[in-house]
Amino acid sequence: MSIRTVKYMGEKCLETVSTEMSLSDPALKQLIPDMFETMKSAEGIGLAAPQIGVNQRVLVFGFETSRRYPNRSPVPYTALVNPKLEILTDDIEYDWEGCVSLPKLRGYVPRFSKIRYEGFDENGKQVSRVVEGFHARLVQHEYDHLEGILFHERITDRKRFGFEDVLFPEIY
Ligand code: NI
Asked: Could you tell me the pTM of the whole model?
């Protein structure tokens, strides 16, 4: 397992639509553990392959507790290859998001409150879950990375975008 270099906003790999990953690609065996390791080392709660410069459709996410996102219900540690999302409601919720590719920044981002996601885990087993709230938000954020979209592009009130230590001094 090794920690990969996280790419920051401005890199082309973060603006690129990623391609599907073959489940039989031997690179997956290394990629997924590395992504979990890199996510944890960056104190992230999710990471998409483009964030380490790999433009293929692979996500990892999950946390029990997070210093950077206190008071959120835990999300099971999950790897998803070739995920598909289905929006299950018109209801939109707003909450603050950050991203390890935009260090120290937070924005107030609208997301659908309920989705179904499907994909394949690190063992090639199918995953299918219906989720709501922060879990749904996290997966939508990570999925956006596969489409070359960063969270600040989703912000509707541009004034609600700023530095973590100013907006949330309590987590510092
Ligand atoms: Ni992100």
From this structure: 0.97
